[in-house]
Amino acid sequence: MQAPLPFCTYLLLMLSCFVCVLPTNGFFVINCVIKGSLKYPANLKALCNKRELCVIPHNIPDQTRVLDLSYNHLMSIKKKDLIYFTKLTHLNVSHNWIKDIKEGAFRSLTALQELNLAHNNLHIISGGSFQNLFNLTVLRLDENQITNISASAFDPLISLVMVNLSGNHLAHIHEVQPLFQLLNIQELHIGRNGFSSFQTPQVSNTSLKLRVLDLSWNPLRVFRITADVFPHLESLGLAFSNESMTWDVQDASYLRNVSTLNLTGIEMNEEIKSVLQTFNTSLTNLSLYRLKEKTLIKTACLINPLRTLHVQSSRLASISAKELTGCTDLVTLDLSENSLRNITNLAFGFMTNLKRLSLSRNKLDSVPPAIWNLSSLEVLDLSYNSIYNLTCSDFNSLAQLQTLYLSRNPLYSVKPFQNLTNLKTLIISSSRLISVTNCFRACLQKLEFLDLTQNKLNYIHKEDFGDLKSLKHLLLNDNQITTIDKGAFEGLQKLTVLNLQSNKITQSSLKASVFSGLTNLKYLLLNNNYLSYSDQSNLVKPPFRYLKSLETLAIHSQGHKGMLNFPSNFLEGLTSLQVLTAGNLNLNFLYPNTFSHSPRLLSLDLSRNELTTVSQELFTPLKRLNRLHMFSTGLQSMDFLMQANLTEIQYLQISKNELAVINETFIASFTNLTYIDLQGNPFSCDCSNALFVDWAIRNNVTQVVNADQLTCNYPSKLRGNKLMELDFESCTVDKGFFCFISTTVFILLIMFSSILYHFLKWQVVYAYYRLLAFLYKSNQQRKTQSSGYQYDAFISYNTHDELWVMSELLPHVEGEQGWKLCLHHRDFQPGKPIIDNIVDGINRSRKTICVISRHYLESEWCSREIQVASFRLFDEKKDVLILVFLENIPPHQLSPYYRMRKLIKKRTYISWPKPGEDTRVFWEKLRMALEAKESSKEENPILSGISGT
Ligand SMILES: *[C@@H]1O[C@H](CO)[C@@H](O)[C@H](O)[C@H]1NC(C)=O
Ligand SMILES: *[C@@H]1O[C@H](CO)[C@@H](O)[C@H](O)[C@H]1NC(C)=O
Ligand SMILES: *[C@@H]1O[C@H](CO)[C@@H](O)[C@H](O)[C@H]1NC(C)=O
Ligand SMILES: *[C@@H]1O[C@H](CO)[C@@H](O)[C@H](O)[C@H]1NC(C)=O
Ligand SMILES: *[C@@H]1O[C@H](CO)[C@@H](O)[C@H](O)[C@H]1NC(C)=O
User: Which residues form the TIR domain (predicted)?
Assistant: First the structure.
């Protein structure tokens, strides 16, 4: 037993639990969703974004690693706001209204690695802003109003690798000069400010590690480098620089490692040539979006090492060899978002190394013959053009092509794709194809991914896809498919994903033969079709019976009327099924053996079906289930889930049901639960939910999502109130109060009884028991009366006798005889007051077995247990006590234990045999005692004991 606590200590403890609730230990944080478990805080995330918060919520667990406060209305960060987050590694406070950060506001965040302050209203960065952020590697301050930065502000940031200050109002480069001095700085974004000159004397010392410098959108008039300060600079951004910029790099070797240059929107004329010349030996990647002057392409191609050229959004209407001669070494050419209509046949003629060509978002009406010579091409993007027809020879020479994008063209017919023997990915979505018969014959032996979404296909013929031996993904969603031929996918042995959602497939075209041959299919999506069944009876040929490997099946949302009935063997054959989404099907009933075909199910979604009642048998086969989504299913009780004993459940989405009470059995049943969503249930705001509220606030395993949003529906005067804000103190204080009264009365009575003993001996004792019984009863009425018993017997024993209980009693009575026992160390709910546990234990048990030894008689707690049991005897008029004597205790030794003496006088009791004697008779007696019904008439030891003497 527990070490005996003085009763008032216990009373105090019990009261204090409710007075000083400490939600910081729990999962319940108003306005935040906590991801992860408090037990393993290394992944703990607090997501408090988009909540219109004006202050940082308190109660966020101290152990949080990632804190997202973006998109709120925070105005400032105060000194104490973040003081406890010593483990925080990522803090996002972007998109707020923060005007000011108090000095030292981040001083506790020594573990912080990323700080995002973008899109706020900061004007000034003062000296102590980033105090102690020694581990910070990424700092975002873009899109603020910063005009001033204190010279010492960045000093603590010794680990800083990347800083973004774009989109501010800085005018002088010396404001950011300290950033260039940071030991580890690699990336510096200072675009969209007011810098009018960038000159090395302003930057001074060498930035040894700087790799990326972005100066785009500044009104730079001078760019002057007079010393070797950026020896490792790789990428330089000068997009949208001033058209009259003076470019003065005194020695081209100062920028010898710059391989990427962004000259988007450049408006310089002759000057640009000297800019490009600077990079003659290093530049491999050049961006010239929004190019004004086509001839610049030719100049760019003079740069020897150049391999990647972006000329997007430049309104080019045509391109020819004139511009592209000299670009023979290009590997990537991006001409997307132009107005190309005409490409002369020889435009790409000499690009024998070209691997990636994008002609996306142009005005081509056919595949340009210019590509015919590109025999090294691997990726070709022709999406978003106006191509109507493909001819057989369009891609003839592209034997190396691996990826072809043709989506968003008004294609209505496709000729067989020839010669594309290496093609792996083909995307023809959002076109007007009505049929693909004969398109994919013979040569596409390596095709793995075929996307035909959003076309007008209505009939899938046998052999449409049969030759695609390597195909793994086939996307046919968002078409008009009504019919699929028998064996249409035969031959696709490697197919793992088949997407048929949003078509017009009906139950009559969903035949098992359609899926024959798909031995490796893992994902089958059939949502938003027209499946509907008139009854639940077994299908003669269940549709999925060949899909032995299928892991995910999605069939939610069928037709206008819904699926209506779920044939009981619908899932037959799906022995590997792990995920089933079957929401919104207008189902009212599920046949109890529906899921017996899919015992490996891990995740099940039945949301938005008006199921109301669910049989326990339905869930019994699903022993592995760990995610269950049943929102809006009209559930009134979760008993079916408890009875099915699904202990693996971790994620439970049961919002918008008719659940009024979450009782302690429910809480105790799902010990692995990490997430439960109960929003939108009509909670009953009385003591029946007191335990749930306490648990929601303080347990550290299960997160009750948005617990603060749960509202009361009953009693009507509390309707609409927040469940978590209610005062449940009365539920427990009453109990404490009654305990207090009863103890006081008890003590007083003992005092008085000793005085009055001689005068009114039995009347006093009788009154004492009447009083206790009365108090106990009124206390009891406050609790929810559970109907049946959970246990056969509650065992009351002393710690010294634990060995006997564990090694003798338990194996015999629970093991052999099959009774269910309640043992305090095993069955008591942690965190619940001891006395409540005892009372509960006794009341949930049919009998109470007292294991009596000398130690037992001496222990206070045990006598309290007998007390409770005898109250029950007295109160409910039920005989529940079984006395087991472990040792022979002579009557004179029992005399101090008045009640015990009285009990054994009138009752039969069972004695444990002496060592060496046969124990079988003992166990038999015990079994009979346990079998006996609680008798109310005969012996009532307390009453008879009192009246008897
Ligand atoms: C800072 O980073 C280093 C290296 O990653 C790590 O060892 C140290 O524990 C971090 N400091 C804190 C306070 O987390
Ligand atoms: C070049 O700079 C422009 C403007 O800042 C930007 O939109 C574009 O994405 C950059 N291009 C590359 C390749 O980084
Ligand atoms: C494109 O070619 C057509 C003839 O094929 C010609 O009429 C048209 O002028 C050309 N457009 C341009 C911009 O060169
Ligand atoms: C596409 O091909 C069809 C017949 O194959 C032909 O009638 C039509 O004119 C062609 N359209 C274009 C734009 O070439
Ligand atoms: C393309 O394939 C056809 C036969 O399918 C063949 O005659 C032709 O030579 C091939 N073209 C090229 C360029 O390989």
Answer: 789-930
Which class would CATH give 780-947? alpha beta
- The DSSP secondary structure of 629-651, one letter per residue, reads E-TTS-----HHHHHTT-TT--E
Q: What are the distances in angstroms from CA 2 to CA 190, 803, 838, 843?
A: 66, 15, 11, 20
Sign of CA dihedral 72, 76, 80, 85: positive
Report yes or no: 162 and 190 within 8 Å, Cβ to Cβ: no
Q: CA 19 to CA 727: how far, in whole Å?
A: 11
Please work out whether the CB of residue 216 comes within 6 Å of at least one atom of ligand 2: yes
Closest of 326, 328, 404 to residue 360, by C-alpha: 404
Question: 239 with 217: CB under 8 angstroms?
Answer: yes
Higher pLDDT, 933 or 620: 620
Report the share of the chain in percent with pLDDT over 90: 51
So where are the chain's domains? 293-456, 780-947
Answer yes or no: are the C-beta atoms of 414 and 391 closer than 8 Å: no
The predicted-structure confidence for 345-372, as pLDDT tens digits, reads as follows 889 988 999 999 999 999 999 999 999 8
Q: Which helix (H) or strand (E) holds 734?
A: helix 729-782
**How confident is the model over 747-806, as pLDDT tens digits?**
888 777 777 766 665 555 555 556 665 565 555 444 434 447 888 888 888 888 888 888
- Residues 537 and 507: beta-carbon distance below 8 Å: no
Question: Could you tell me the pTM of the whole model?
Answer: 0.73
Exposure b/e, 497-522, CB count within 10 A at least 16 = b: bbbbbbbebebebbebebbbbbeebb
CATH number of 293-456: 3.80.10.10
Ligand closest to Cα of 412 equals 4
Contact by Cβ (8 Å): 587, 611 = yes
Question: Is the CB–ligand 5 distance for residue 396 below 6 Å?
Answer: yes
Ligand 5 pocket test, candidate residues 398, 418, 422, most atoms within 8 A of CB: 418
Q: Write the residue with the smallest CA distance to atom 8 of ligand 3.
A: 342
| C-alpha to C-alpha distances, 610 to 603, 607, 615, 656, nearest whole angstrom | 19, 8, 14, 11
